Amino acid sequence: MMTNLPPLTTDTLWAILNDELSDTTVNQLVWHTLGYREVLSSETPSSETPSGKQWSTEKVDGKWQEKYPEPPNFIESRPAAVQLTRAIPQENKQLLKTYLGFKGYKVDQLVPRLTRRATMANWLLSEMQLRGLISP
């Protein structure tokens, strides 16, 4: 259940980049922003998914709905992380550097888990920009 998610702020993005939030929380924040909503058992059920949870995708973009009927684990799934990268408009691809001043990870930190977290933070920052939550 996606409750008590941190607010979508630059402090939250830094917490993602600095590995201060759990992978589960980071995934849930991206899922929520994409529009995935967990269906409570008392609500009208949708189709059962492999995770055993039921998800409403009515607020999820059609490209995501088709490929991911339930939210993917972006940290474990390279294809999902790649799709997230491709969903960032070109003009927003450098926002971590230009807006947040993120200098990247050191060479010994370049592991898939951290680089995917950076991708997730960059996508969230791009969404913040597109939704007018930050000034350009």
From TrEMBL:
Sequence segments annotated as region (Disordered): 41-74
Pfam families: DUF1823
InterPro entries (alphabetical): DUF1823
Comp. bias (Basic and acidic residues): 56-69
Superkingdom as given in the UniProt entry: Bacteria
Gene3D superfamilies recorded: Protein of unknown function DUF1823 (1.10.418.90)
Comp. bias (Low complexity): 41-51
Official protein name in the record: DUF1823 domain-containing protein
Source species of the chain: Phormidesmis priestleyi Ana
